[in-house]
Automatic annotation (TrEMBL):
GO terms for biological process: L-histidine biosynthetic process; L-tryptophan biosynthetic process. The lineage of its organism: Bacteria, Pseudomonadati, Pseudomonadota, Gammaproteobacteria, Lysobacterales. HAMAP family: HisA. It holds the Pfam family His_biosynth. Its main location: cytoplasm. CDD domains: HisA. It comes from the Bacteria. This is 1-(5-phosphoribosyl)-5-[(5-phosphoribosylamino)methylideneamino] imidazole-4-carboxamide isomerase. GO terms for cellular component: cytoplasm. It catalyses: 1-(5-phospho-beta-D-ribosyl)-5-[(5-phospho-beta-D-ribosylamino)methylideneamino]imidazole-4-carboxamide = 5-[(5-phospho-1-deoxy-D-ribulos-1-ylimino)methylamino]-1-(5-phospho-beta-D-ribosyl)imidazole-4-carboxamide. GO terms for molecular function: 1-(5-phosphoribosyl)-5-[(5-phosphoribosylamino)methylideneamino]imidazole-4-carboxamide isomerase activity.
Amino acid sequence: MNDDFLVLPAIDVRQGRVVRLNQGDYARETVYGESPLTLAQDYAAAGSRWLHLVDLDAARAGGYTLLPLLREIGADLQVQTGGGVRSEADVEALLEAGAARVVVGTLAVREPERVLAWIARFGAQRITLALDTRADDDGEWRLSAAGWTEASPWRLADLLQRYADAGLVHLLCTDIARDGMLSGFNLSLYRWLSQTWPALRIQASGGVRSLDDIRAARAAGAGAAILGRGLLEGKFALTEALAC
């Protein structure tokens, strides 16, 4: 069990609104009432030290659009953020705007050599690798990219090993089948990841619905849990989750 476990409430933003997608499908969107800034301030007031902020428009089209929001939120919280990060200049801009960590997903799958160079330049503590995965018919974990709209030929194990060999620290791994579905974390995925790459700080994401799911992710070896729809819909309180 990980004794230094983090809880990160998530805010996904599309067209200026707080939303959640079901299984990464932009046509299956739920919109929530609060503004992203107000919600982030509420999370800080509840005791959160971290926030996971996603630019969903940019995740599909490129070009991170939330820099003003990031600057405001960063006054109260350490922010891990991504969506549309396509260049070294993008990483630099987010860090300069106050991001504690920059999340890189699509480019990490499409052009790993570039992202490996970013880890070397900015440091492993400043980059979170987001590898979003689906199990194929043979039970092999395979990767998706571009906001989950694009399949990849990579196996999760093969690509992750390249990054681990280069000193990767933070891995956010999502079972796409679980995301936004309130069906619980895929614990077998996180057990396998933590046992195979014990030096990684694994962030569990996708499907959390209860405090027991958070405790189970921690017991499975994850170093953090990303809380999305379950938190937004009041399945549990953030103060309770932080106490886990």
